[in-house]
């Protein structure tokens, strides 16, 4: 168990506030949340996440969206003093314990943005949280799930041998939740994220179907996927999720205009966040030609790198050494 505890403390190994793809994803999510106005003022939503000592998403969503009702769930109770010290705003309430235990104890009468942002692979614990979330959230809420897109064992070690991947997946997840026909070859590279995405989506839909069992026609709940991000900041990561609402509010959903966002995904085609390898000087040069004169951008910068930057430049993070 001690080895597992060390694995789950990823915040002692990675500064989540400066991972470039993660930063871009965070800003894209923020833009999606801004479009929730037809369902209610976003600043009146509640945000629930896993802050870790960095609280990067809490910083962004509080300052950019004005959300004040915030809850951070932290399983490593032994680091309570560290979390309390690093809590950036007084409006953040800390809840200590495993998310499987904490989520069922929360009140769900408030429209919520819930980010189940795990630093480990898909397993039964994740699916239990997904079931709790979609069984509980009020209509108009958004739920996001992020997992490591690799097959890993109980110690967090990546399984490299193809012949062992399916067996390990069946150890991590109940076999009946894995689609028939999945082979070891489907668990390599980004195809593994495709499989994970399918398992999560099935769990969401099954949970909503069960919830709708007690609802009359015209009052059913609908789930609409909004995003399907694939990215790599040292390891392959998958983020999938969307909004749940009453079928009578379908017009509100259309009023949100989510589909106008370039990264909106309502199917299996992922939005891959790719980070270009460019110097700061090259980035500044490319900025001069964006958004309208991209065809005149310097050709000495590799075309694939120019295209990557064009796709994400409004969300691209800029880091600099500073004394604070």
What would you note in describing this structure?
This protein is an alpha/beta fold and 324 residues long. It has two domains: 2-273, Rossmann fold (3-Layer(aba) Sandwich); 276-324, no CATH class. Helix content is 35%, strand content 18%. It is built from eleven helices and eight strands. An eight-stranded mixed beta sheet has the order 3-2-1-4-5-7-6-8, sandwiched between helices. Helix 4 (80-86) links the parallel strand 2 and strand 3 (92-96). It starts with a helix and ends in a 12-residue tail after the last helix.
Summarize the structure.
The protein is α/β, with parallel strands linked by helices. The protein has helices at 2-8, 20-34, 56-65, 80-86, 99-102, 124-136, 162-172, 190-212, 250-256, 280-287, 303-312; strands spanning 46-49, 69-74, 92-96, 112-121, 141-148, 221-232, 236-246, 271-273.
Features:
324 residues; alpha/beta; Rossmann fold; 8 strands; disordered N terminus
Q: What percent strand?
A: 15-25%
For the record, the count of structural domains works out to 2
Structural class determined from secondary elements = alpha/beta
Strand order of the largest sheet: 3-2-1-4-5-7-6-8
* Measured distance between first and last alpha carbons: 38 Å
Q: Segments where pLDDT lies below 50 for 5+ residues?
A: 1-7
Would you give the CATH topology of the largest domain? Answer: Rossmann fold
CATH superfamily of the largest domain: Vaccinia Virus protein VP39
- Got a strand count? 8
Per CATH, which architecture of the largest domain?
3-Layer(aba) Sandwich
């Amino acid at each position: 168990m001690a080895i597992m505890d060390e694995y789950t403390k990823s915040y002692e190994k990675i500064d989540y506030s400066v991972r470039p793809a993660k930063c871009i994803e965070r800003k894209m999510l923020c833009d999606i949340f801004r479009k929730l106005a037809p369902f209610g003022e976003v600043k009146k939503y509640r945000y629930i996440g896993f802050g870790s000592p960095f609280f990067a998403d809490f910083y962004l969503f509080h300052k950019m969206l004005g959300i004040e009702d915030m809850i951070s769930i932290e399983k490593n109770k032994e680091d309570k003093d560290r979390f309390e010290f690093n809590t950036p705003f007084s409006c953040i309430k800390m809840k200590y314990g495993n998310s499987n235990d904490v989520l069922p104890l929360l009140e769900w009468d408030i429209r919520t943005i819930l980010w189940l942002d795990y630093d480990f692979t898909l397993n039964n614990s994740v699916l239990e949280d997904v079931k709790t979330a979609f069984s509980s959230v009020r209509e108009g809420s958004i739920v996001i799930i992020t997992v490591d897109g690799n097959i890993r064992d109980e110690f967090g070690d990546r399984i490299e041998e193809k012949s062992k991947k399916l067996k390990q997946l069946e150890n991590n997840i109940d076999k009946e939740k894995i689609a028939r026909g999945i082979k070891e070859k489907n668990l390599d590279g980004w195809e593994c994220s495709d499989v994970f995405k399918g398992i999560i989506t099935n769990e969401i839909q099954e949970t909503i179907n069960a919830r709708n069992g007690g609802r009359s026609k015209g009052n059913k709940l609908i789930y609409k996927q909004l995003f399907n991000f694939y990215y790599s900041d040292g390891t392959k990561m998958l983020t999938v999720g969307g909004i749940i609402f009453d079928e009578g509010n379908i017009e509100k959903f259309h009023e949100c205009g989510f589909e106008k966002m370039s990264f909106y995904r309502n199917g299996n085609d992922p939005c891959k966040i790719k980070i270009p390898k460019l110097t700061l000087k090259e980035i500044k040069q490319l900025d001069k030609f964006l958004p309208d004169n991209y065809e005149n951008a310097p050709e000495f910068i590799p075309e694939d790198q120019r295209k990557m930057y064009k796709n994400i430049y409004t969300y691209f993070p800029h880091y600099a050494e500073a004394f604070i």
